[in-house]
Each structure stands twice: as C-alpha cells, then as structure tokens.
Design a protein that fits this description.
The structure holds 2 protein chains of 2 kinds.
Chain A (H helix, E strand, L loop, with lengths): L2 H8 L1 H20 L6 H26 L7 H15 L4 H28 L4 H19 L9 H8 L1 E2 L3 E2 H19 L1 H11 L1 H6 L4 H27 L6 H17 L11 H20 L7 H16 L15
Antiparallel strand pairs in A: 1-2
Helix pairs in contact in A: 2-13, 3-8, 3-11, 3-12, 3-13, 4-5, 4-6, 4-11, 4-12, 5-6, 5-11, 7-11, 8-9, 9-11, 12-13, 13-14
Chain B lengths: L7 E10 L2 E11 L4 E5 L6 H8 L7 E6 L2 E3 L4 H6 L2 E4 L11 H5 L6 E2 L2 E2 L1 H14 L16 H13 L5 E5 L7 H16 L3 E5 L3 H7 L2 E6 L2 E7 L5 H8 L23 E8 L3 E8 L4 E5 L6 H8 L7 E6 L2 E2 L5 H4 L6 E4 L3 H5 L6 H6 L7 E2 L2 E2 L1 H15 L15 H13 L5 E5 L7 H16 L3 E5 L3 H7 L2 E6 L2 E7 L5 H8 L5 H10 L1
Helix pairs in contact in B: 4-5, 8-18, 13-14, 17-18
The chains are: A mainly alpha, B alpha/beta.
C-alpha cells in the first residue's frame, strides 16, 4: 500500500463525516426559500457552532474510552457565569472571558480527579458532577437574565468581510489552537492509546492517569467555550435543565456521527464538529421541506441509529463469541 | 560463572497471591552479552519472575540488583528507564494506533511540543529493519496486522527503547519458522552488542539453538543453572519435575474399554489455526484429562465443544448421534446435555452481585419453572440439595456470590451446572487459585459424577491432577493432540516430555526408568 492510502484510511471517518455534511448542507441551502445567502450560512453556523464546541468537549473524553455526561451542565454554567462577569469595560469583559474559561477548566479537573483518584466510572462521576455544576448555574441565575459585553458578542456572531460567519472562524481557531496541537502532542497520543487499550498502554509505560486528566480538563475548557458563545448569541444567561440535557445527549450523537468510536482510541474532534453540524442540518432540512417540526426527533434518531449500526458491522467478523462481551 | 560481574542479580525473591505461593526465595544471575534461557513447567514461577523484573508486580521479599545497585520498579515505565524492556506474551501493542505510533509510544520525538511524525517514521523504520521486519509499513494500524507481524512489531518496539536487558516471554509463539530464524539472527546480534537477554520459551529446540546459559525453575525457586548443552533433554526434564503432590486423590476405577458409541466422540475438530484435527472420545464414567503447556489450544477445544466459537469444523457425536452445538444454550439442551465449568469464574461463571441461590438456579431455570414461572419452593429445594452435596459454605443463600471465598465460589459454579444434570461435563482449569481442601472436594466430586455415568473432560495446568484424577490424558501441543497417555502411563515425566514436544520421548522415559 502507498503512503497516501494509509493517510486516507487514518482520516476516513472524518472525511466521510465532512462529505455527508457537505451533501446535506448543499441540499439545505439549495432548497432554502431565501437561497444560498450569507445570512443563511451565518444563522446556520451560529447554531451549529454551539453544538460543535460541546461535541469537541465530548470528543476529548470519548477518545480515552470514557464519556462525559456533564458537558451540558458545564455549558450552561459557563453561560450563566458569562452573563455575570463578561460585562463592563473591554478589559473587564476580557478578564471575564478568562474567568469563564478557568471555571470550565476547574469543572474538567474535578471530573478528572474523581475518575482517576476515586477510580469511579466516568458515566457515574459525570452524572453526579453534572448535577453539581447545574446546581451552581441555578444559584447564579435563578431566573433568566444578565447581559454580555456587546462588542465581543457582535464580533463573534457576525460576519467577517461581509460573507464569512465569524463563529466559523472562531471554531476553526479552536481547532487550530487547541485540537491539532493536542492531537499531535505526546499527551494526546497517550489519550488515544489509553482509549484503545488501557492495559497495553500501562505496559508500554504510557502516562495513563495524566492522559485521562488532560482529556477531562480540555473537555471542561471546550464546554465552557461553548457556554461563552451561547452567552454571546443570546445576550443573557439561563440555567435551563433542558438545554443542559439536550446538549449532553446531542454531543454524544454528534461524536458518533463524526466517526469517533465510543469504544475509544479512534476519531477526531474535526469529525465530531462535522457530526454536530450534520445533526443540526437534519433539523433544518425538515424545516425547508415544510415537514412538521414534530418529526425532528424521530428523524434524528433514525439517522443516529443508522450511523451506530454501520459502526457495529465489525462484530460480524468475530469468531470467538466471548470476545463480543469484552 | 565468575568471568564477568553479572549485570542483574535477583536474591531471595518471594511472591504470594493470596494463599498461593508463586515464588519462594527465588534467585537469578544474568550476565551481559549472553542469552539466558529460563525453563520450568506451568506454575513454576517463570511469569511471576518476569512480571517482577518488568515492574508489573512488586515482590513481597527479596532484592534486585542492577549493576550491583539495589533497584525497585513500581511501574513498567520505571523498569524501562532502568534499561529493562520486556516483550510480553500477551501483546502490549495499542490496536488503534499505527505501527510507528506504537514503536515510539513511550518517548515520541517532538518538535515544538508536537510529535514529529517524520522523525517518528524514520525511527520506526529503523527499528523494524533492526528487528528483521522491514516488510511492515510504519503507517499501518496494528489492529489490521496478522498476529505474526504484530509480534515482530512488538520486538521492534522493544529495540527502539535501547534496552540493556531484553526479556522475551514466549515471544516467538505466534511466529512462522522463517520469522523465528530472522529473530534469532537479531537476538544473536544484540547479544554480541553486549545486551543481556532473558529468553523464556517452551520450545526446547529453540533454547538449544539460542541459549548460552539456562536456569531451571521449579515450585517457585531456581533449582539449577548451567551452561547450555551441559545437560541432556532427559536431565532437564528431570530437573523440571518433582512437584510434591499437593492433595489426596480418590482411587481410580479399572480402565474402560472403548465402546461402539462412546458418550462423547469428537472427530477432526478444527478452528482457525488454533485447533488442528483433534479427534478423541470419552466413555460414560470416564475422566479424560487435557494437559500440555498453557495456551496450546485446550481452552479453545472446550469452548468449541460448548458452541462458543463460530467456524468450527469437524464432527461431535453424543451417544452416537451427530450433534454440533452452535451455541451454549444448544450445548446444554437435553439431547446434548453438556456443561462447561469456565476458567474465569468471576466473568464467565458467576453473576457476582446476584445471590447464591439465583446463581445456582440460572442454568436450570427450565427445570424449576412451571409454565414459564419460576417455582420458588422447588428452586429452593434443589438449591439446598446442591449446597449439601458440594458442602458450600455460604452465610445465607441470599448473600451475593461476591461475598464467598474463591473456593466456595468455584463450588457454586460447579453446582450451578450440576443442577441441570449434564451428561458431559467440561472443566476448564477449575482448581486454579483455590485452597487445597476445596481442591480435594472437587476431585472427589468429579469421581462421583463419573461413577454416576457422566463423561468428564478436565483441563488442568497442574500435572499432579492429571496423574491423580484422570483415567486417560491427552497432551496438546500447538492445537493438536501430541500424545495420549492411559492409566499408569500418566506420569509427570511423560507429561512434561510430551508437553515440551521433545522428540526423543523414548529416551527420556528410559532415563527415568533407569533411575
């Protein structure tokens, strides 16, 4: 096999997610009553980027074969905190942004420590910590309200050069500054190794605990970025249980659609981003084809089921059936 | 051996797992620039020794000296830093990463904090060439490689760490003859470069070809160290045996002649490359032992009979009727009547959080149910009967199975299957890690079941059980039956010789007889 074939195989899942998204978005834009305009793209991207950031957060943990059910709560907490502290003069708002991101890092660090030191399953840990984070959000914003520093919000949710949505550029910046260096660093490599086979990683001298810790921390950071962006979009904070739960579940769907294996060890946040955009586009497609919005959950569910079934096809090759359970 | 100061010395090393003694005052001296083979039968302590050196487990007592300085490793990474690298029998490769990623896993080359993929590929390529595996592409994913290539990658990965002491634990078991030859060239070159190599293998001809020094382990201690070639195969076997009988066995009945339609008849059974052309029979009332070194296909044979594996070829007859179980539930149906006592009672035999009574009745729910409803009274009566038969000591039937001792857990597993009244009972190393008293009870139980007309297939890694418990024994090697031993022929000497697949079995036996 030639080198490029290996490179292709390595990125197949991500490229597939990208291709499917492009097709779906083309159908959507082509049938939109307003046509393919900068406005349509901007609205779609602002909605999509919210879920994409939470999906990136989920990816960090899923790669280590864990799962983070607190991402939605961190997202909401960051939103509520942002509506308090990203205000005032420009320098105060900038400090506020930093504060929100640090809060996300702290949430992730708590998750990581409980999972690593407490040896608890990620699913149980993050259900519990997620409830705590949501409780904090509720204390911050018992009822919706607050404000955000306008220039930041306008800059990040508007357009650059009149056509490009600023939110997409911000998302690309997150990928370039956060994801790519991580995925190529020794600690990112360790995360993949741990997710693929924790035992083999330990035997090979991989820093197992450190890799997991960083994954949770970066997950918290990405979810906080998403919450911050939500504040910029809505100009307010709201401790909505429904938002938290929906984003957590959708982030898992986006990760699966983006070709990130829930068994851990393979996939990319870039794939998860396209998975998130895809998931959002499904809903929009129903809209442009004038279908009842009530169909949306059913339709999204069917697409998800199809994606998961494709991923399970490998099980048909197993010859020792005991391996199915391991 | 006083020419050079040894690079590695182990003194008085002991290790216990619960009540089981794995190493007892064991020692080892390894010199640089030599290949040192370690020999011993199953359970002699070889793998525990390796695990201690590799930093996987910590010894209870004893000292390890590296270059004369005492060392202790709390993790494989610490052992690697000290220059001790181990190639494990169970592979330590990460399946979803590429070959190059795996080779460089512990110390990838970096630029500006990111992994330098180009440098890493160069490094991987060089290591693969050094290991004689230039045909493996560094970008291929490990999970896509066949087992023999993975093992070569494993060797390349070890070499990339520049070890001073390289440990190979059955590292050639999945390799083809051509690969073995290549690996041997590599190992000899490494020795000439001044590395110390520890070589564990059950292939005697490999050791004869490769080793400079040999140390024999028995019962968790080193019993002899000698220059390679200083002892004959017969003498080596003599050194390896001699484990004291650890339990008292019930008397055996006179041998049974083969009938026209034995209860279990297996012909030409095969599965991938792990089982080859296995044919044998078991009469009602007979205990058939499966022996040989660990991992020669015994476990797969039992799983194949019980319908766990798919793609099994050959035929299985029960009482003359052709049945080929396709699933465990088919195997335990009335027309087949099979039961498998699994090896790992914690994952395959018990639902640990469920109660003892519930665990017991799982395999026999159809016998205690009427019209699909579980008859609780009948269930309890049967369970009580089994508890008494096997003398299971449980505080209460409603306690979770996890609360019992290992021995009692294993009895629950056995009792669970006996409640379904099987005709054919397959046992996969049922006495591993349990106390002597429980072992004796299990031996007695096996004999009673056979006397009641069951056919028993009993795989054990403990040779004394084959000798004490079995009417006949089959020794497997590399997925095929190497030898059948009947009655008095089942001796430790014959078992060890055929398990090691030593060609001159007659010579070994003669040497034993002459003693």
């Amino acid at each position: 096999m030639k080198d490029w074939r290996y490179a292709l195989a390595e990125n197949r899942a991500t490229l597939l997610a990208f291709a499917v998204f492009l097709v779906m978005f083309a159908i959507y834009a082509g049938n939109h009553p307003a046509g393919f305009s900068a406005n349509v793209v901007q609205t779609a991207s602002n909605k999509g980027v919210l879920l994409a950031l939470v999906a990136v957060a989920q990816t960090f943990v899923v790669i280590t074969a864990g799962i983070d059910l607190s991402v939605g709560s961190v997202f909401v907490l960051a939103n509520c905190l942002g509506s308090w502290i990203v205000v005032g003069a420009a320098w105060q708002a900038a400090l506020g942004v930093l504060g929100v991101l640090l809060a996300g890092v702290a949430c992730g660090a708590v998750n990581g420590l409980v999972v690593i030191v407490g040896r608890l399953q990620p699913i149980v840990t993050t259900i519990a910590t997620g409830a705590v984070f949501f409780g904090l959000a509720l204390l911050l914003r018992p009822s919706p309200g607050g404000d955000v520093y306008g220039p930041f919000a306008d800059a990040l949710t508007g357009r650059v050069l009149g056509v490009l949505p600023a939110s997409l550029i911000a998302l690309a910046a997150v990928v370039i500054v956060l994801w790519i260096p991580y995925a190529r660093s020794p600690i990112g490599r360790a995360a993949y190794a741990v997710g693929s086979s924790e035992q083999a990683s330990f035997m090979s001298g991989v820093p197992v605990d450190l890799a997991k810790f960083w994954a949770y921390v970066l997950s918290g950071l990405s979810a906080a970025l998403g919450g911050l962006f939500l504040t910029f979009v809505t100009y307010s904070g709201e401790a909505s249980a429904q938002t938290g739960g929906t984003y957590t579940l959708y982030s898992i769907a986006a990760v699966v659609l983006g070709g990130v294996s829930l068994y851990g060890g393979s996939g990319s946040a870039i794939g998860a981003i396209f998975g998130a955009l895809m998931f959002r586009t499904i809903g929009d497609l129903l809209f442009v084809f004038n279908l009842d919005p009530l169909w949306q959950p059913l339709f999204q569910g069917l697409v998800l089921l199809a994606a998961v079934s494709l991923g399970a096809a490998r099980l048909f090759q197993v010859r020792n059936r005991l391996e199915l359970f391991s | 051996m006083a020419e050079a100061a040894p690079i590695l010395v182990m003194q008085g090393v002991s290790k216990r797992y619960g009540g089981v003694r794995a190493l007892e005052n064991a020692g080892l001296e390894v010199e640089a620039g030599r290949i040192h083979a370690i020999l011993g039968e199953n359970g002699a302590g070889k793998s525990t020794l390796i695990k201690i050196l590799a930093g996987v487990v910590a010894p209870d007592a004893g000292r390890i000296l590296l270059d004369g300085r005492e060392v202790a490793f709390d993790s494989p990474a610490a052992a690697n830093r000290a220059g001790i690298v181990c190639i494990f029998q169970e592979l330590s490769l990460v399946p979803d990463l590429s070959v190059a990623d795996n080779i460089a896993i512990s110390n990838p080359p970096t630029r500006f904090g990111m992994i330098d993929r180009r440098a890493q590929r160069r490094m991987a390529k060089a290591a693969l060439l050094r290991a004689g595996a230039g045909d493996v592409h560094p970008m291929a994913l490990v999970k896509d490689l066949p087992l023999s290539r993975r093992q070569m990658v494993e060797i390349a990965k070890a070499l990339a760490r520049d070890p001073r002491i390289l440990i190979l634990d059955e590292a050639t078991s999945a390799l083809t003859a051509a690969d073995v030859a290549k690996v041997f060239v590599v190992l000899r070159r490494l020795r000439d470069e001044g590395l110390a190599l520890l070589y564990i293998s059950h292939r005697m001809h490999e050791i004869a070809e490769l080793a400079d020094d040999c140390t024999v382990y028995r019962n968790g201690s080193n019993v002899a160290t000698y220059r390679a070639g200083a002892k004959s195969d017969a003498e080596v076997v003599e050194l390896m045996i001699g484990r004291e009988l650890s339990a008292v066995f019930p008397p055996k009945p006179p041998p049974k002649p083969q009938s026209a339609a034995p209860l279990l008849q297996v012909r030409r059974l095969g599965w991938t490359n792990r089982l080859r052309d296995v044919s044998f029979h078991v009469e009602a009332g007979e205990v058939l032992g499966l022996g040989g070194l660990d991992g020669q296909g015994q476990r797969e044979l039992l799983l194949a009979l019980f319908g766990v594996l798919s793609g099994v070829t050959g035929e299985v007859r029960v009482a003359g009727r052709l049945v080929t179980p396709r699933s465990p539930s088919a195997a335990k149906s009335d027309e087949v009547g099979m039961a498998l006592i699994p090896e790992d009672r914690k994952t395959e035999g018990l639902m640990l959080p469920m109660s003892v009574a519930e665990n017991l009745s799982f395999a026999a729910l159809d016998r205690v149910s009427r019209a699909g409803i579980i008859d609780r009274d009948r269930e309890h009566a049967l369970v009580a009967e089994m508890m008494q038969l096997l003398a299971i000591r449980a505080g209460s039937l409603d306690n979770p199975a996890a609360s019992l001792s290992g021995g009692n857990q294993q009895k629950v597993v056995i009792a669970k299957w006996l409640m379904a009244e099987p005709r054919i009972i397959l046992l996969n190393d049922p006495t591993r890690g349990i106390d002597v008293g429980t072992k004796q009870e299990i031996y007695g139980l096996l004999r009673r079941l056979a006397d009641r007309g069951a056919a028993i297939v009993f795989y054990t890694t403990d040779y004394s059980e084959l000798i004490g418990c079995c009417d006949r024994a089959l020794v497997l090697y590399d997925g095929a039956i190497r030898r059948e031993l009947v009655g008095e022929e089942i001796t430790e000497r014959a078992l060890v010789a055929s398990a090691l697949n030593i060609g001159e079995t007659a010579e070994v036996l003669a040497a034993g007889a002459a003693r």
